[in-house]
Structures are given as C-alpha cells and as structure tokens.
Write a structure and sequence with these properties.
The protein has about 110 residues and is α+β, with helices and mostly antiparallel strands. About 35% of the residues lie in helices and about 25% in strands. It has helices at about 50-60, 65-75, 80-100; strands at about 20-25, 30-35, 35-40, 45-50, 65, 100-105. It is globular and about 35 Å long.
Length: about 110
C-alpha cells in the first residue's frame, strides 16, 4: 500500500490521534473516479490525483473523522501492522496539509 502520488519532505508535526478531526478542505472540489480521488484546488485550479489507498482514506474523512477512526478502518482493509500504518498515515496527512487539501480540527 502507499498513499497517493504526492511526495514531500517530512514535516515536524505532532498528531493528536484521538481528538483531532480530519476533513477535506473548504478550498477544494473532489471526485472519486476509477479507484482514485481527483482533487481540484479551487484557488489555483491545480488538479491532484490520489491512488486507491488514498481513495479509501478520502472516503473515510469526507464527512470528518478522527485519526484513530481512520487508522482503525484502514487496518480492516490492509494487512499491515498498526505501527507501520500509523507512520504512513501521519506522513500522508502531513502532505495533504502542506497542499491545503485537508483541515485538522482539534
């Protein structure tokens, strides 16, 4: 599994897993098509594609979900350790935040 096609340097952000809510940004439009999510930044009109693993993530957060909820639902889908998925998921969320595709509410 891998989340998306977005690659960025690691950011130093601390994730508060239980209480933080993740949801799509207000500045984007998105659509799921052919096992991928296509995200349009309405300000810059830049389009990004996120692969199948990212699609499952997006389906979970579309109405808002906590980090823990996302983690548990993805663990039902993927045969990986919790620690490996948590690390990958934190990095993916950081990347989405950097591009302002998701909002984190605490």
């Amino acid at each position: 599994y891998s989340f998306g096609v977005i690659m960025l340097r690691p950011l130093m952000l601390t994730m508060r897993r239980v209480c933080m809510t993740i949801k799509p940004s207000k500045n984007i439009s998105w659509q799921i098509y052919d096992n991928a999510v296509y995200i349009l930044d309405e300000r810059s009109e830049h389009m990004r594609k996120i692969d199948e693993a990212g699609m499952y993530f997006w389906q979970i957060i579309k109405d808002g979900a906590t980090f823990e909820e996302v983690l548990l639902k993805l663990l039902e889908i993927y045969a990986v350790t919790r620690q490996d998925l948590e690390t990958s998921l934190q990095q993916f969320i950081r990347e989405l935040q950097e591009y302002e595709m998701v909002e984190i509410l605490e």
